[in-house]
Design goal:
- Its main location: Golgi.
- The chain is an alpha+beta fold and 217 residues long.
- The model has no long low-confidence stretch (mean pLDDT 86).
């Protein structure tokens, strides 16, 4: 992302609303602490730094995802970046259950070009973008095709998390929290994993890559 925003890393900014204190630590996380004397006062994570929110080829905010669990999903927060005289958390809301919205004011985004995506990319990715622009102009691709290429560029630059990466994360989470209700389910999963393991071994053998086998396999 924009290098000048990295100076916010390692700092935290808080905002108190009613009995809750919200804390935003850019490139790290967002937390919420209930400031009451209740024995079970809530204190938890509303999201961990995940990816940028990009709109009209401009950085507009930060997505903090995979926070504490909330019913069937994880809490997540979008932090909107707006121009302000000083660095401060200015507003907090919860537009939908377990999805929060924070407004962060900072002079670092006041310059009209401070949040443009293009200048933050490598020369190779800028060339890829230029080509896509030309293809669109020459009507060789549609507007939808152009947006798809831009999304790929943003993913390659690490500004957005790739869909496969998210899916892999989801699957890993599923496997680590997997609980087998029956022996049959366990056997089914074991067979599936054995098949995948065989495929991987075959691939390694095919490419002449040595691998160690575990005797307790």
């Amino acid at each position: 992302g924009p290098a000048h925003l990295f100076r916010l890393a390692g700092k935290c900014f808080s905002f108190v609303e009613s009995t809750y204190k919200y804390e935003f630590c850019p490139f790290h996380n967002v937390t919420q602490h209930e400031q009451t004397f209740r024995w079970n006062a809530y204190s938890g994570i509303l999201g961990i730094w995940h990816e940028w929110e990009i709109d009209n080829n401009t950085f507009v905010g930060m997505w903090m995802r995979e926070g504490d669990s909330c019913e069937t999903k994880s809490r997540q927060t979008k932090v909107l970046l707006v121009c302000g005289k000083s660095n401060k958390l200015a507003y907090v809301s919860e537009p939908s259950t377990c999805v929060y919205s924070l407004t962060f004011e900072t002079p670092l985004v006041c310059h009209p070009h401070s949040l443009l995506v293009y200048p933050t990319l490598t020369e190779a990715l800028q060339r890829k973008w230029d080509e896509a622009e030309q293809f669109l102009y020459d009507e060789l691709i549609t507007e939808q095709g152009y947006k798809k290429i831009l999304k790929e560029i943003f993913e390659e630059a690490g500004l957005l998390r790739a869909a496969e990466e998210k899916e892999f994360e989801k699957q890993s989470k599923k496997i680590t929290t997997l609980e087998f209700e029956t022996v049959e389910n366990c056997n089914k999963e074991y067979k599936q994993l054995s098949k995948e393991l065989k495929k991987i071994k075959d691939l390694l053998t095919q490419h002449g890559i040595a691998y160690k086998t575990n005797s307790g396999e």
